[in-house]
Amino acid sequence: MNPLEASQLLTDEYSAKILLATYKRKISAQEISARYGIPIAACYRKIRILEESGLIQCVDRVLTQKGKRKNLYTSKLKNAYIFFENGRLRARFQLVSGIVKDFGGDWTGADLVRD
């Protein structure tokens, strides 16, 4: 993932709402959809993208009163930083586990405009 894609994860309206909804709590896609006004199909799609990016995880599967299983998600993101410095975009995610993910190669950034 490049720094631009990483920053878009945080600035996308639905992704941001999902990250906020899952911060320090377990919540299902259905609850996120209802509480934050995200269409359920879009909610599942964004959850999948955030899971693949390592920013949220499924931490539990519970049985509903109707006998169906639902996943409960929680955020793995502790801090996120997006920088634009001297024509370079950089992104850094700090996870609750202590892992730091830098986007922009060796943390020198990525040139968005080629000379």
Characterise the protein shown here.
By secondary structure, this protein is an alpha+beta fold. It folds into 2 domains: 3-76, Arc Repressor Mutant, subunit A; 78-111, no CATH class. The protein contains 4 helices and 7 strands, in the order ααβααββββββ. The strands form 2 sheets. Strands 4, 5, 6 and 7 form a 4-stranded antiparallel sheet that branches. It has a 3-stranded antiparallel sheet with strand order 1-3-2. A hairpin with a 4-residue loop joins strand 5 and strand 6. Helix 3 (29-36) crosses helix 4. The protein is elongated, with a radius of gyration of 16 Å.
What keywords describe this structure?
Arc Repressor Mutant, subunit A; alpha+beta; three-stranded antiparallel sheet; elongated; disordered C terminus; 115 residues; 4 helices
How many helical stretches? Answer: 4
The largest pleated sheet is described as: 4 strands, antiparallel
| Shape call | elongated
- The computed structural class is alpha+beta
